[in-house]
Amino acid sequence: MLSHSINETVAAAKELYHKSTGETPDSLPVYLKMGDPVAFSRNFLESSWPETAKCLSEILESLASTLDTGINLRNILPGK
User: Fold this and answer.
1) How many other β-carbons are positioned within 10 Å of the β-carbon of residue 52?
2) Global confidence as pTM
């Protein structure tokens, strides 16, 4: 699952940060960028943009809720 990979990557980054500085970070910034939502909608959801905006927002919210680190979903989708 994608969230598992992201969580493992963040944990590894925190461990490397701790090894290099001796400090344990409370959190590390995690940035997600979504490619072209129009193409994604057409290719994977078989629908057109902006009709799929709500669906994509729900997919991203679901992903964010499974991450161990906080994430801000603003500005990932156009018009959001």
Assistant:
1) 20
2) 0.66
